[in-house]
Amino acid sequence: MSPELSWHPDRLFPSEPTVRDVARRLYEGVRDLPIISPHGHVPPQWIADDVPFTDPVSLLLTPDHYINRMLHADGVPLERLGVPPGSRVLSDAEARAAWREFCVRWPLFRGTPMRYWMSAVLVDVFGLRMRPSAETADAIYDGIAAALDDPSFRPRALMERFDIAFMATTDDPCDDLEHHEKLAVDPSFTRRVVPTFRPDRYLEPARPEWRALMTKLGRASGIDTDTWAGWIQAMENRRAYFKEHGAVSSDHAHLDAETKPLTYANASRVYLKALAGEATESECKALQQTMLFEQARMAADDGLTMTLHPATYRNHHTPTFRAFGPDVGCDIPISVEFTRALHPLLNAFGTNPNFTLVVFTMDETVYSRELAPLAGFYPSVYVGVPWWFIDAPDAIRRFRKAVSETAGFSRTSGFIDDTRAFLSIPARHDMSRRLDAVHLAELVAEHRLDEDEAAETIHDLVAVNPRKVFHLD
Amino acid sequence: MSPELSWHPDRLFPSEPTVRDVARRLYEGVRDLPIISPHGHVPPQWIADDVPFTDPVSLLLTPDHYINRMLHADGVPLERLGVPPGSRVLSDAEARAAWREFCVRWPLFRGTPMRYWMSAVLVDVFGLRMRPSAETADAIYDGIAAALDDPSFRPRALMERFDIAFMATTDDPCDDLEHHEKLAVDPSFTRRVVPTFRPDRYLEPARPEWRALMTKLGRASGIDTDTWAGWIQAMENRRAYFKEHGAVSSDHAHLDAETKPLTYANASRVYLKALAGEATESECKALQQTMLFEQARMAADDGLTMTLHPATYRNHHTPTFRAFGPDVGCDIPISVEFTRALHPLLNAFGTNPNFTLVVFTMDETVYSRELAPLAGFYPSVYVGVPWWFIDAPDAIRRFRKAVSETAGFSRTSGFIDDTRAFLSIPARHDMSRRLDAVHLAELVAEHRLDEDEAAETIHDLVAVNPRKVFHLD
Amino acid sequence: MSPELSWHPDRLFPSEPTVRDVARRLYEGVRDLPIISPHGHVPPQWIADDVPFTDPVSLLLTPDHYINRMLHADGVPLERLGVPPGSRVLSDAEARAAWREFCVRWPLFRGTPMRYWMSAVLVDVFGLRMRPSAETADAIYDGIAAALDDPSFRPRALMERFDIAFMATTDDPCDDLEHHEKLAVDPSFTRRVVPTFRPDRYLEPARPEWRALMTKLGRASGIDTDTWAGWIQAMENRRAYFKEHGAVSSDHAHLDAETKPLTYANASRVYLKALAGEATESECKALQQTMLFEQARMAADDGLTMTLHPATYRNHHTPTFRAFGPDVGCDIPISVEFTRALHPLLNAFGTNPNFTLVVFTMDETVYSRELAPLAGFYPSVYVGVPWWFIDAPDAIRRFRKAVSETAGFSRTSGFIDDTRAFLSIPARHDMSRRLDAVHLAELVAEHRLDEDEAAETIHDLVAVNPRKVFHLD
Question: What is the ipTM of this complex?
C-alpha cells in the first residue's frame, strides 16, 4: 500500500493555535481572489492557440529546471528528461521512464517547494492522491495522460479554472507579438495576457551575437541602429509597440545592478566602437550600464514599470551549457549590491512620479540592508518578492520579516510567480497568500497589529499592490 | 466609529503559552528599572532650558526621519512636514494638515516599529486611544496640543516621568557644552545628561569644509592645528574638555571601518598636504584612517568608550540633500567589513584594559560572522544592539540569535536608543526589555537556560552591561 | 544551596506541543544510532595508546579554544589556563585555580553551545549535577578528577561507551600514521579510526616554512620535489599512503576558495621561482590555487572526499599569536565567495562521478545564495553542516531553513563534529539529531512533510548521508 499524497487544508500554517486560527481567517479572506501574474514565463502561444499538452514529462518535467537540477544532482542525465525543452520528442517509453526517474526520487524534494508545487498539481489539478514512488509512477503517469486528453485540461480552460485574471509573458523586443495580438482580438477570450519587454541581450555589447541583434533591432523597428541616437529611437519604438500590445513592464537581468551612464557623446562614440567590434571589455560594460540607464529614462517617459533582477552567474557549468544550452539548472546566484549601483539611476528618476522600479534579489542580505531602506524613501522603488530559488516558504517568511520593519507592506510588489510551470501557478499564488497570512497572523498574535488591519493588508497585497505597481487598470 | 488604538500588555510576546508566561515574568523583573541611555540625539538645550514643545508636528513628525521617509515614499512632499527641522514654523493650519497627512497614512506603518513607538507616545504619554485616521486626525492633534500646554509635558518633567537616569547627547568637538554645564550646576536637576564627543567631520580631510574645521578646532582648543602634532594635541584637549563635562564616550561614523594608520612621519606630511588642499583622495582616506586610529589611542588613554557605526551611504538622493540638507531620510546602508578593517586598531588596543569599543551595524551579516567572534575574544570589544533601521522587533530577535551563541550576553552593549524622538525613549527601552525577555524565555522553554539564570541575565542587560560598557559610576 | 545543573530530556525542543511531540518521536528513532564522525581533531595517540586523562583542566579547558576565548574576553589571561596545550603542566593548585576561574564565569556561557556541551560532559559523562560556580568549583573538580582515575574513563572505554563507530583525525601529509597503524593491527580494537589528509601548509608557497616543507614532503614520499611534476607525484604518493591507512578525505582551509589553475607550464615555472624564494605574492597565490585545483584532480582519481572550509582570518591578534601560537581563540571569520571561486574546479570535476566535495562556511549568507544552489545541481557537491562558531542550535536551525528549500536534505553532509573536545562528541551529535528532529517536526506540523517521510529523512541524515558523502563501506 503506497501512502496517500497529503495535502492538508492547514498546510503552511504553524501549529500554534492562536497564530493558526488568525492565519486561517486572514487566508480565507483572500483565497478566492483572482490571480494577477505580472511577471512569468508561460509561452503566449499556449494560450493563443490553446495548445493541448501532450504528455506528463514534456509538461511537468522537461521545462522545469528546478526539478531537473535536483534530478541531475542525484545522477540522472539531463537528456533522459528531454532537456532542453523542444530538443526532441520523447517516445512514450522514454517519457514513462523519465517520469519514473522522478517518482523514485520524490524523497529528494522533501523540504523543497518543488514537492509542494508538484503535490498541488497532482492533487488540485489532476485529482491524483498517490504519493510518487516506483510503485505509483505508472499509475500517476496514466492519470495525468488521461486528463490531458480532455479539453478541460487545455490552456484556456485551465486559465479559467485557475481564475488567472492577468498574466504577463516574457518576450524579445523584436517579437512581433502575434500571439498577444491574436488573444487581444479574440472576443471569446476574456482574460488578459500581455507581453513583457525583455531586452537584456540587446543591452550587452560584449555578447558575441550583439551586433546581429542590433541589425535585427533595426529591422524590427524600421529605424537605423547604426548610431547611438538610432539605438535609442529603435528601443523607444519597440517599447511603444509592446505598450500598444498591452505590456505593462520591461524586465532586466544583468550580472550586476550598476547604472552609471556615459555622457551622450561618449555613449555615441563607444556605441560605434562596439558596432565595429572594437570596444574594450570596460567600454562594453560602461555602454551596458548606459543602456540600462536609458531604459529607466524611457520607463519614466512611457510609464512601463521596470523590473530588475541582477546577479546570477548564468550557465555555471560550461560543459552542460554546451550540451544543453541555457536555462537548464546551472545558473547560480552571486552576491549583489544596490545602494551604490542604483545611485545614478535613482538620482535621475527616483522621485519621478512616472517611474516605477521593482527590484528582485536572490541575495537575501540586501533585504534589510539596502532594498527596504531604498523602497522606504523613493516613491518609485518597490521591493520584489523572493525570486527564483528563494520563492519558498521559509525564505518568504524571512523576506517579510526583513523588509516589513523598514518599509512596511505598501512598498512591496505583491506576488510574482515568475514561472514557466503553468499548472503550478495557482499553487504558487496560494502559497504566497498562506505565508502572508502567517506573517500577519504572527503580528496579530504578538499584538503588533489588529486583525482588521491585517485583513486589509493581505487584501492589499493580493489585489491592490500588483495593480498599483504594474499600473493595471 | 473609529477603532481604538490597541496597546496590549502582552505586546511583543509570542502567543505560545509556555514562552509567553516565562517572558512575562522576566519582563516584570526589569520593566520598572530606570532608563540608561548612553547614546542618543536629544538636543541638550531642551533639557537645560526646559523648552516647552510647541505643537504635535514639530515635536513628533518634523524631526523624525523614520516617519518622514515613509510619507515621502508615499508621495508626501517633505516641505509639507516642515523638513528640515527648524527651517520654518508651520502655521497651525499647515501643522494640522501635516498631521492629517500622517494620520491618513497610518496603514503605511503596519509592521514597522514607527507604528509601535507612535502608539506608545499616543497611549502612554498622551493618554490618547484613537487609532490615527482621517476621522481622528484633528481630535488627536487637539489632544496632543492641549497636553503640550501643560507644564507636566515639559522636557524635565517628562524626563522624571520616564525615569531616565542617564542620557548622553551627541555634540560637536568644538561645542562649548554650555547646556550640559547649566544642567551640571543646577541643584534642582537630579538626572544625568552628558555630552558625547562626535568628531566625524574633523576626521574626514576630503570634506570641503575640513580646512575650516581645523581652524575652528584650533580656536576651540587654543592649540595650533597647523601640524599633525597640533591636531593630536587639540583633539586630546577637546576630549579632555568633554570628559570634564561628563562625557563617557566618543562616537564615530565613517563610510567604512578601516583603521590602518600612517606612520607618524607620513601622517605629518599628509596632514600638511591636506591643510594645503593638495592631498589626493587616497591620501585623504589614509589620513582619515590614521585619525580614527588616533582616536582609539586617545580612548585607551582617557578611557572614553569608543562607539563605531560605519557603512551608511549618506544623502543618497542628491536633489533631496540639496533642498533639505542631511538627516532627512535618504541615508541608505551599505555592506560592511570589520575583521580585516579593525585588525590594526585591535592589534594595538584590543587587549588594553583601558580601551572599550562598541561596534554597531546595519549589515546584519556581520553579527555571527565577525562581530560576535571579535567580541568573544577581545576584552575591549562589545557588540552594539541593532542600529537605526534594524532597531525593530524581528531584527532585534535575529540579533540575539546571531550573537548569543558565539559571544553570550556579557559581550553586548545593553540597549542604545540612538534617537532624537524624545517622547519615544521609554517605548524603545521597553521594547528592548520585552524582546530580551522573549529571547531568554525561548531559551528557558527549550531547556537551554534555567529561569533564574534568565532573570539574572535580563537584569544585567538592562542595569549592568550599559554601566560596565560606558563606565558609568 | 547551589542549584542543580539542569539537563532536561526535552532540551532543544520547542515548547509548542505539536512540534515538540513530533520532534520527540523523530529523535527517538535516531538517538541510539552509532556515531559517525568523519572529520575531527582528536589526537590519534589518545586512542592508540589509550592515554589516561590527567586532570579536568588539561582535558576540558586548555585545549578548548571556544571556552578559553570567552574567558580571555572576560579578562582571564590565557597562560592561567595552560594555553597553549602541552606548553607546561599545571600544578594541582594552578589547575584548581583555573577550573575555578571557569566555574565562576559559568554565566558568561549562557546562550552558547559551550554551556550545553559542558553540561553534557558533567552530567552524562561524569554524572555530576552541580551547576558550576565559586561554591561548586572544587567539588566538581574533585568529581572529575576521581573519575579520570578509573579505567572506564580512558579513551578506548569512552569510545565504546559513546558508541563512536567511525572517527577521522586530522593529520599532516608527512605523518607516518603510526598511531593509526597501531589501531589497525590491534584485534582488540573494533572501532574505526582513520587519518585525514590535511595539506594546507604545503599548498601555501607564501609561508616562510614552505620551502622546508617541500624538503620534508620529498623525504616522506621518497620523491624529488624540486619540480612541479615532483610536487604532484609526491602529493599523490602521500595521498595514496593515507588512503592505504584508511583515510576517506582530504581537508582544506585557505583564506579564500579560489581555484583558478595556472597552465602546467606556468605552474612549473612559478613552482621553481617559489622554491628559489623568488615568487611574487600574486605568483604564490596563483600557485596555491593551482595546488588546490590539483588536489581536486587527485581526489577525482583516488576518490578521497575533499572538504573545504575557507575564509578564516587566522591569529587575528598578533601579540597573542606571538605569545601562544595558533589555535588559541583569535581566529575570526571573514566573508566568502563560492560561485565564482569554485567555477574552475567545478567545471573540471563537478560532474565527475568519482569526485566529492563538501563545502563548509562560517559566512551564513552563502547557504541560500551559493551553496544550496551549487549542491542542487552538481552531483559532486554537498553542503557541510554549520562549522565552528555556528555549530550551535539557532545557527543550525537557520542552516536547515536556508539550505533545504533549494537543495533538500540529500545534498547535505550529515553531522561533522570537527572537535578536539573528545568528551563532548556524543553531546554534539545528540544536539544535531535533536535539531534536525525539530526542523523536520516543524515541516510535519505545517503539513509540509508526512511524519513517515520525516522519520526516514532523519535516519538518512544520521546513518546514510555521512556514509555516502565520505564513501564509508
Answer: 0.98
